TrEMBL record:
Keyword field contains Kinase: no
Gene Ontology cellular-component terms listed: extracellular region
Protein name per UniProt: Ribonuclease T2-like superfamily
PANTHER family referenced in this protein's UniProt entry, alphabetically: F7A19.32 PROTEIN, RIBONUCLEASE T2
Record key words, sorted: Disulfide bond, Endonuclease, Hydrolase, Lyase, Nuclease, Signal
Lineage, uppermost ranks: Eukaryota, Viridiplantae, Streptophyta, Embryophyta, Tracheophyta
């Protein structure tokens, strides 16, 4: 192979390094909050954590790295196992703001372990395990979604509200358009289930979403009691 051939081969190899993205690389986070009333008001039902019924407030579901194209990485580092000792100072706040509703009733560690191993390990290039959970807690406080909605006359009273009104209230409150996801109660009513807010790769600042999830919400949806 001549000098020109080697040059082309090296160039292709060099380009290949940049075409192949490392698994931990990502473009933004979805910060996902769920309404407990909607989670529990389905045929699946729910179980309160061992600490008791959570507050009637949005709870954290997760902080999920995503790509601009709509796909996402997951389970990026099998060697980085969840270590509860690393978040011991956050546990009381996690129980309040990131409560589990899965059955059977439990403290929440299984939920947090799942979120770290599936999603958190894909953000290790920018934050460690403690920072991952701490940043999520700070984002929830920063968003203050229930206050934003109630200030706009949107209350968890089993009433029906327009999707546009909910979206605009949150957009006016945080400065960016959210993604809204619905589920159905046993009577097949569409209800407000999850809210997606996009966050920059530092995991600290809200941004406009590069892509919004398909929430499958109708123009009117129920905000269920809890």
């Amino acid at each position: 192979m001549g000098a020109k051939g080697w040059f082309i081969l090296k160039l292709l190899m060099f380009q290949g390094l940049f075409v192949s993205r490392p698994q931990e690389d990502f473009d933004f986070f979805y910060f996902v909050l769920q309404w407990p009333g909607a989670y529990c008001d389905t045929k699946r039902a729910c179980c309160y954590p061992t600490s008791g019924k959570p507050a009637a407030d949005f709870g954290i579901h997760g902080l999920w790295p995503n790509y601009n194209g709509g796909s996402w990485p997951s389970n990026c580092d099998p060697d980085s196992q969840f270590d509860r000792s690393q978040i011991s100072d956050l546990v009381s706040s996690l129980k309040k703001n990131w409560p589990t509703l899965s059955c059977p009733s439990n403290e929440g560690f299984k939920f947090w372990e799942h979120e770290w191993e599936k999603h958190g390990t894909c953000s290790e290039s920018v934050m460690d395990q403690h920072e991952y959970f701490e940043n999520a807690l700070k984002l929830k406080e920063k968003a203050n979604l229930l206050q934003i909605l109630t200030n706009s006359g949107i209350n968890p009273d089993d009433g029906f509200y327009s999707l546009k009104k909910i979206t605009n209230a949150i957009k006016n409150g945080i400065g960016f358009t959210p993604g809204i996801e619905c589920n159905k109660d046993p009577e097949r009513n569409d209800q407000l289930h999850q809210i997606y807010i996009c966050v920059d790769t530092s995991g600290t600042e809200f941004i406009e979403c590069p892509v919004l999830p398909r929430g499958r919400c109708p123009s009117q949806l129920q905000f269920s009691k809890f």
